[in-house]
Design goal:
Length: 118
């Protein structure tokens, strides 16, 4: 069997699999192929089920998750313990801008102190 006959054998077996040849279905390769397809279908079904369960569970505990995130945000932002939600968001935006400004100032200080002209 030469190398030139290999592509024709491969294309023939793929063609048989795609056409659903009866002989291939009853052979061990066909049986193995059907098991692989069944396993993939089962895995996809389980994956879809997990996604649906997460969506359902997420909506049930949605407000609890939001409350937890708000508490975490209040711990990160200074002096925000007694703020309402809209004030907390405003203060968070201001705090982010303040931190960005501090970073820029420190970058300028590093350039000046190291003498780099970048």
């Amino acid at each position: 069997m030469g190398v030139s006959s290999l592509p024709s054998l491969v294309s023939l077996s793929l063609k048989d699999l795609l056409q659903g040849n009866e002989e291939k279905r009853t052979s061990s390769h066909g049986c193995l192929w059907s098991k692989v397809l069944a396993a993939q279908a089962k895995k996809q079904k389980l994956t879809k089920r997990r996604i649906l369960m997460k969506r359902r569970g997420g909506s049930r505990r949605g407000s609890n998750g939001i409350q937890r995130r708000v508490r975490t945000l209040k711990r990160l932002i200074p002096n925000s313990d007694s703020m309402e939600l809209d004030g907390l968001f405003r203060e968070t935006a201001n705090y982010i801008l303040s931190l960005q400004t501090r970073v820029r100032v420190m970058q300028v200080m590093v350039k000046v102190l190291t003498g780099s002209d970048e």
